[in-house]
């Protein structure tokens, strides 16, 4: 339930993150890894924004930049109107209450020495929420919300299955009643049948609590199932941003098209219209011009020279943003 | 409710500790024997005043330098007529006291340095601390002990201080190594994302997860301390008389090597067996706790 | 490679400098004036005498000045003069160093000569009786305090063979035969732990390599077991043995102190022991620094040897 016209919850502008510049004196000089190279996006309240891309596209880094678990090299992130980069340490801790993260591998995201009760109540303890009895009560409520029995509280993480552990991860993320949850490949490590259960749980929780999600994954199929809008990311930059249905039916960017085409489908016509050639290049040395051009089957003259900007195109009912010279009326032909 | 465990769960699992002792005995029989010996050592050391047949300082003028079994002295007597067995038992007491104190003091300091160093690995804090540790380790142990104990003078307290300097770098190395690994674990990132501050992370996420290798190192260090303390006492710089100490007994026995070898053999044997036991236990713990998951 | 060597050496020097500084600070900062302690036993010592001695030894100047003198001297190889007999510390150390080095080297030699074959044998016949016996002996070897082992050996030889180690030390140049006999027992006592360590390390390393794919390939080509072990597996499994040596050097150096005392060998170990008894701080300081330098040097050499054997190390070492 996205509130139309309301101020966005999260606004990222020109986010940049380079790793590996400024090494020790004697390390060989190498160009930095340009994990995120100028990304702007918004997440509205109650919305699920999908973020899809291959490994190495920088999507996990982007998620962490938004949560300020990593410091950006450039750009800014605004959460509920506050620029999170300027926050003091205590304000940042306050902020952590409102945005949480669900990890890809649930087991390694839990301290093996902590019981589930401790795992769930820790966020509350850190933020000074309630007293001991109140926290246990809330922990039980959280378990109930994600569909787990309350005697799970005394168990240790390794005693659960993947799907159950991921539910606990979601419960932990909900403990502080956040406004935003970043799901970083939250279902990628699960068996397919379990994936559907967890995705439905996420949707249900969102419906009940009105949260926003930033759903990061490499599987477009999963992403479009749960998202309202989808961002497609390639090598540190956004290729396309559109509504979930639009991305599926009418992908515009050649990369989006290739991603869609690679989804197995019984419909033979959809297969292999624009096959994806080659491998993703190293983020240390992105190709010149449009980063996708070496693998693009529709590249034109100029794609290897100028980087395309993310431009809004289309009619109001089909509004979307694409970064591709094919759709840029001003690019030279 | 049966909790089905899927494939991904196995990778992250650690053995539970409740049935651990039983499993330990089954898998590491040598280690179990060692553990038994060590328990024996501790019990004997603690109860020495009650189980020693004679007062360790009492001189039996009738039976000087008597062989084991003669005159009611199970392990013989030394040149002053003191019962070797009783002195050995009390020596165990001294050694236990010193070793435990040393591990506590040196272990605490080494742990703090290692944990802080590891968590802030790569920064100047880490570099500075580790250089100091390197300098400490560059001096061979006995030399270092001589140096410090000589400066401070012989006493039990000073021996503990000197021996702690031996312990600190080893504990530091283990703690730092583990912390560097733990720091990269997703659960630390999860803790930060939940809002945990650094102290909380170090105490609740760092410490509990590095206990296992720390115990292994602790056992091995116990052995080192036993030997080092004896060496110091042997040289006359460690535990001062009249407190019974294995090292000094060995030193006293040296002048009577051909006449009364038991003065040297008995305390040395007990010392060696204790050291052996701690070494075996450390090895067994290491094997028990570690490679299982790799297989 | 040269770059790596340079970095490693610089690092070693840095640590040595730190050792020297630490030791200097500790000595100067402990309570208890060196002079007072020295003159404490002499009857009727006046304050004037104390002051005079203090000034003589330069202990009345501010710490920084003293440190400056110390560093200045150090760089030139001058470690000051002994409190005891006023001779230069460096001279005294150099007199004693050869005996200690000889003892240490003999111990290491003993450790290698016995440890390597034992380790190999253990690995080749692993899980056999021979192997288990050797492994047990190895653990025992590592657990026995070296001075106790020395005493045991002396007792054993005295009681059963009526033989005692010579009381007077002869340098190798004077009487090589007697020198070696003199050094035999302490070298064995000292080297036992090293032998045990090497045997254990070699065994596990060899077992690992022998089970690896690359050895399987060589075997499948029909090479005899001996060739497999000696030529191919041997080389790669020797690497961890160097680690052991690097670690053992510390123990060996430390062990020389006690063993020199037991066997009346005039080496650096006895020197530092005497100096401690006399509160001869310059000598103590000098000995600690020299011991530290030897240890650091050996480790640098071991690291460089590693880098020669395993090229990965040279390049990985770039990003510390």
Kindly describe this structure.
The complex is a heterotrimer of chains A (333), B (295) and C (320). By secondary structure, chain A is of the alpha/beta class. Chain A has helices at 59-66, 89-96, 116-126, 132-145, 162-174, 192-209, 220-226, 244-249, 254-261, and strands at residues 10-19, 33-43, 48-52, 74-79, 82-83, 99-102, 180-184, 212-217, 229-234, 237-243, 311-313, 320-322. In chain A, strands 6-7-8-3-9-10-12-11 form an eight-stranded mixed sheet, sandwiched between helices. In chain A, helix 3 crosses helix 4, helix 4 (132-145) crosses helix 5 (162-174) and helix 5 (162-174) runs parallel beside helix 6 (192-209). Chain A is globular and about 65 Å long. Chain B contains twelve helices and no strands. Chain B has helices spanning 7-12, 20-27, 29-51, 84-119, 124-138, 141-152, 156-183, 186-194, 198-235, 246-254, 262-289, 291-294. Chain B is elongated. Residues 1-16 of chain B have low confidence and may be disordered. Chain C is mainly α and 320 residues long. Chain C is built from 14 helices and no strands. Chain C starts with a helix and ends with a helix. At the B-C interface, helix 5, helix 6, helix 9, helix 10 and helix 11 of B face helix 1, helix 6, helix 7, helix 11 and helix 12 of C.
Defining key terms:
heterotrimer, A: 333 residues, alpha/beta, eight-stranded mixed beta sheet, four-stranded antiparallel beta sheet, 9 helices, 12 strands, globular, B: 295 residues, mainly alpha, 12 helices, 0% strand, disordered N terminus
Strand tally of chain B, please?
A: 0
Helicity range of the residues of chain B? over 70%
Extract low-pLDDT stretches of chain B.
Answer: 1-16
Through-space gap between termini of chain A:
43 Å
Strand order of the largest sheet of chain A: 6-7-8-3-9-10-12-11
Helix and strand element order of chain B = HHHHHHHHHHHH
Kindly estimate the percentage of residues of chain B that lie in beta strands according to DSSP.
Answer: under 5%
**Rg over alpha carbons of chain B:** 23 Å
Please state the CA-atom Rg of chain A, rounded to the nearest Å. 21 Å
Largest interface (C-beta under 8 Å): B-C, 42 and 46 residues
